[in-house]
Amino acid sequence: MYALRRWWERYGIQTALVTAALSTALFVRQTQGGMLLETYQLITRPFQGNPAQQDRLATAQAQELQQRLIELESRNQRLEELLGFVSAKKTKGVTAPVIGRSADHWWQQVILGRGNQDGIQVGSIVLSPGGLVGRISNVTAHTSQVLLLSDPSSRVGVTISRSRFMGFLRGKAANRAVMEFFEKVPDVRRGDVVSTSSFSQLFPAGIPIGRIESVDLNKSPAPEAVIELTAPINYLEWATVYPNSANLGEPQLISPPVPTADETPAPKATP
Amino acid sequence: MNMALEDLFDRHPISRPLVNWGVTVISVLLCLLVLPMRLPGMELAGIGPNWLLIWVVAWSIKRTMFQGALAGLILGLLQDGMTSPSPTHALSLTLIGVLTARLQKQRYIEEDFISVALIVFGMAVLAETVTAIQFSLQGGRSLMEIWTYHQFVALSSAILSSLWAPVVYFPLNRWWERMGLIEQV
Questions:
Q1: Fold of the B2-184 domain
Q2: Distance from C-alpha of B145 to C-alpha of A87, rounded to nearest angstrom
Q3: Which residues fall within 8 angstroms of residue B177, CB to CB, at 6 or more apart?
């Protein structure tokens, strides 16, 4: 008993401190650093950029192209309405500043300055001008972690926009990714555009991802292509988060077309 | 500052370990919060210095192997919380704590920034190698990809960590030396 008391007098405080430190570390690990990320968000708040300012920096050419795209989209929508497609509802996204990168080099992650207070959930998809960036892997009240497309552990079902050949994509550091094809001899060329396929469970179909940079048809077991991601993943400053719903990419066919003479929609003014 | 601290310690002996541990904990917290930042000059091809590794080396350099291992374990768990729990960082950082304490630096090498930077360089390469081995055992990625990436990561991380090592090592070492002196008196 005496020995125990002497031991406690000598090492008591140290043991208590070490136990406290260990349990804190375990707590942080179990909660995936939630409190740390919140603190980080608080500290970096004065340095976070304002997305609205970034918007104004878009060049005139990009604006012109965007206007043409809107024009084409609305025309496309009119045609789809005539054919009996139900027009896709535009889901509103949350614009979030990028406040940090991955805390280790082996993971390709990004920390956003918005969390579940703004409606972001695990599995929401993240877009930026240029295309798909990744998906939300972890959320706290005011921050969220994004697993980038370029992370080797992220897998996405993709398709070649021109020839509709399918495959899946896995990340390869920086802004490159590797696409593995399902077919032995796919019709694919350098410069082809790649977008998410309808096989993808995690992402809606039809979101642009990147361009084919090089093709290796002799690769076994399946032909491979290196893809350059169009989203500027390396110098991302802000991103838009959308809830994962199928109607983000392509409109869906809900009912077969029943064109009747008196139900043709009145032509609307195109913007 | 000096006088005020000693005055405080004289009046309330309990405050000495509290202040000592407080400073240590705050330094860990600062290292953790700097991890996701990429400030200009702190980045080489998208890779930043491994601050927690520098901290573990600074801590274990004049301590026992057990203390080094404990610090490595705790900081490794913290870094797991910041990224992803598998594969764990606790393994590599614990190993580094043990090895650094094992080096018995004061016996062989002169105490200066260069030697600390060298130790950090070697340990950073070792830590990335341990992580790469864990990834290889885990499967899911091709071995060639892992080890090509390992070369790139190990080199950049080692260079940057060793360059930034004095920023963490110098103030912490000064502080612990002072606390040690005060405690001996």
A1: Arp2/3 complex 21 kDa subunit ARPC3 (1.10.1760)
A2: 43
A3: none
Q: Contact B37/A31, CB-based, under 8 Å? A: no
Give dist(CA A51, CA A130) in Å, integer.
Answer: 16
pLDDT tens for chain A, 271 residues: list them. Answer: 788 888 888 788 778 888 888 888 888 888 887 888 888 888 887 777 666 555 655 666 777 787 788 788 878 877 777 776 554 555 677 888 888 888 787 888 888 888 888 888 888 888 887 788 888 888 888 888 888 888 888 888 888 888 888 888 888 877 788 888 888 888 888 888 888 888 777 888 888 888 888 888 887 778 888 888 888 887 788 888 888 765 555 444 444 444 444 444 444 444 4
pLDDT in tens, A36-75: 888 888 888 777 766 655 565 566 677 778 778 878 887 8
Could you tell me if B17 lies within 8 Å of chain A, comparing CB atoms?
Answer: yes
Q: Do A105 and B17 count as a contact with CB atoms less than 8 A apart?
A: no
Q: Do domains A51-149+233-247 and A155-229 have the same CATH topology?
A: yes
Question: What is the CATH number assigned to the segment(s) A51-149+233-247?
Answer: 2.40.10.340
Chain B residues whose beta carbon lies within 8 Å of the beta carbon of residue A107: 83-84
Confidence (pTM): 0.75
The domain spans of chain A are 51-149+233-247, 155-229
Cis peptide before A221 (omega within 30 of 0): yes
Continuous segment of H or E residues that includes residue B11? helix B2-11
pLDDT score of B11 more than 80 = no
Closest CB from A21, A43, A106 relative to B131: A106
A24 min Cα distance to partner chain B (Å): 8
Domain spans of chain B?
Answer: 2-184
Q: How many CB atoms lie within 10 A of CB A107?
A: 18
Fold entry, domain A155-229:
Thrombin, subunit H (2.40.10)
**What residues contact residue B159 under an 8 Å CB cut-off, 6+ apart?**
B44, B121
Look up the ipTM and state it: 0.77
Mutation for B interface: A18, A26, A27, A29, most B CBs within 10 A: A29
Chain A residues with a Cβ under 8 Å from any Cβ in chain B? 13, 17-18, 21-22, 24-26, 28-33, 36-37, 39-40, 43-44, 99-107, 109, 111, 152-153, 172-174, 234
